[in-house]
């Protein structure tokens, strides 16, 4: 596949690129400052682009089979930042004729219990609420899009670790193990994302993965 990847310089985005390249896919990494991208591969192309500009998205995405975004808001950024990017990506992908869109989302909108979102639980860190709410707002944008979108929410904890190739999937509920842990490595999260690209099971819906 030819994959246009936004957010490839981040912790998760970089691992998504590596996983895709290891499987023989072609990856176009889009960054505002492409000269700072360190990953090198014969099937990797790094180009300048702005996720906030639909015209830029359309130009870069043209000719690709899928657009993947691993862009997340930074601490202190308003919800409008991520929703603006979401709208731009949707419009740009539509203009480019790219139907497939996979989004690295947040866990805050998943259900910790029936009717109770993770972000609304008493133990959810206050400092992370703005980012969680931004992802939830972006999800509302994507799920109204006339595209074959997938919103991939991580578990409660995602961080660099080991690639095992093993994971469980769920939909709108936070996944936990027998000890109550909800976690996955960034490497196995990337495995699950590329698996979904290759063999879609969650078209036009949200899903999550964890151990």
Short descriptors:
single chain; 211 residues; alpha/beta; 8-stranded mixed sheet; two-stranded antiparallel ribbon; 5 helices; 12 strands; 24% strand; globular
Task: Describe this entry's structure for a reader.
The chain is an alpha/beta fold and 211 residues long. The protein is 31% helix and 24% strand. It has five helices and twelve strands. An eight-stranded mixed β-sheet has the order 3-2-1-4-5-8-12-10, sandwiched between helices. Strand 4, helix 3 and strand 5 form a beta-alpha-beta unit. The two termini are 27 Å apart. The model has no long low-confidence stretch (mean pLDDT 95).
The succession of helices and strands, N to C, reads EHEEHEHEEEHEEEEHE
- Specify the structural class: alpha/beta
Work out the radius of gyration.
16 Å
End-to-end gap: 27 Å
Helix content class: 25-40%
| Number of alpha- plus pi-helical segments | 5
């Amino acid at each position: 596949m030819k994959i246009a990847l936004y957010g490839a310089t981040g912790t998760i985005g970089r691992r998504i690129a590596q996983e895709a390249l290891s499987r023989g896919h072609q990856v176009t990494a889009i960054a505002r400052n492409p000269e700072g991208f360190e990953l090198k591969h014969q099937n990797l192309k790094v180009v300048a682009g702005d996720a906030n500009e639909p015209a830029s998205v359309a130009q870069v995405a043209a000719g690709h089979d899928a657009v993947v975004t691993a862009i997340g808001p930074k601490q202190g950024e308003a919800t409008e930042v991520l929703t603006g990017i979401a709208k731009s990506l949707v419009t740009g992908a539509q203009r480019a004729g790219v139907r497939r869109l996979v989004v690295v989302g947040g866990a805050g909108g998943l259900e910790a219990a029936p009717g109770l979102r993770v972000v609304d639980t008493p133990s959810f860190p206050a400092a992370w609420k703005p980012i969680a709410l931004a992802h939830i707002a972006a999800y509302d944008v994507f799920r109204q899009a006339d595209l074959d979108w997938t919103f991939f929410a991580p578990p409660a904890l995602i961080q660099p670790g080991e690639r095992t190739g093993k994971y469980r999937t769920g939909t709108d509920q936070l996944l936990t193990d027998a000890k109550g842990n909800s976690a996955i490595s960034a490497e196995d999260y990337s495995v699950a994302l590329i698996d979904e690209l290759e063999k879609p099971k969650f078209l036009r819906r949200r899903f999550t993965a964890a151990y």
